[in-house]
Amino acid sequence: MELTVHTRRDGVAVVRPTGRLDLVSAADLRQQLADLVAGGQRRLVVDLAAVPFIDSSGLGALIGGLKTARLAGGDLRIASPAPQARVILELTTLHRVLRPYATEGEALAGL
Amino acid sequence: MVVAAPARLGVLHGLLGRFWAGVDQAVPAPPRLVCRLSFATAVAEIAANIVRHAYPAGTAQSGRLRLRLRAFPDRIEARFTDRGLPFTSPQPIAVGESAEPAATGCGDVKGGPGPDPLDDVSRVAESGYGLRLARATLDELEYTRTPGGRNTWRLVKRL
User: Beta partners for B95?
Assistant: First the structure.
């Protein structure tokens, strides 16, 4: 998995992982999100467009990031989930706390 | 047969890809995308579970993980075999018994089980979703520890 972080002029950090988010790569994402919040960037969008597969470890990393961001007074939103990501978010009912936005633009609006 | 290590889990996705290609040729009505995604999710979760529990890091345990994928006219099946530590969990799966039936994808799409409504984010768990996901996406999930010291997991999804 590759991770790119794009910081916008409004201060929102857009994190774009590429590849499977699983037992192996989840720790990297978790660390990246924690580092961003620790560095003062507490409004985060994780764009999942290039993530074909997420397992429970990946979900855990996203929930961890959400908690860390909220605790710092910010928020984390996910954008453009692929079909498999939507399936597992709904099966775990985590879509209720981690609402998927259809596009990065929608996730950014009002963040 | 793959070495049971986290970095090797990606191999499973390649195997599944080849399996679906075979299923497409053998079955008149190939499974829908959501069915494939659900089955792949369950296979990945059980594999990750074996890597974590049967061959935990920092122990002398190491070894291999065997995966057999089969398609039948009415169902698809995955069977994992390993010789690692026996599986024990706070979310037990009775030996030889099917877990709760819930399904996504191959027949009618039904809602899966999940936690209660989640209002307070700080109380949302960050782990423990693996087996729940596997149960929710499958029609049957069986774990057996054989007297010979083998763990077997049988995953069934009806078409």
Answer: B143
Which of A22, A67, A91 to mutate against chain B (most B CBs within 10 Å)? A91
Q: What is the CATH number of the domain that holds B40?
A: 3.30.565.10
**Domain containing residue A59: CATH number:** 3.30.750.24
User: What tens digit of pLDDT does each residue of B48-93 get?
Assistant: 999 888 888 766 556 788 999 999 988 999 999 999 989 886 555 5
Residues A69, A44: contact at Cβ < 8 Å?
yes
CA-CA distance, B43 to B67, in Å (whole number)?
9
Q: Which domain holds residue A34?
A: 2-108
* Number of domains composing chain B: 1
pLDDT tens digits, one per residue of B83-106: 998 988 655 554 333 344 444 556
Q: Report, as an integer, the average pLDDT of B20-44.
A: 90
Chains A, B: CB contacts under 8 A, how many?
Answer: 92
B contacts of A89 (beta carbons < 8 Å): none
What residue of B is the nearest CA neighbor of A25? B7
Question: Helix, strand or coil for residue A52?
Answer: coil
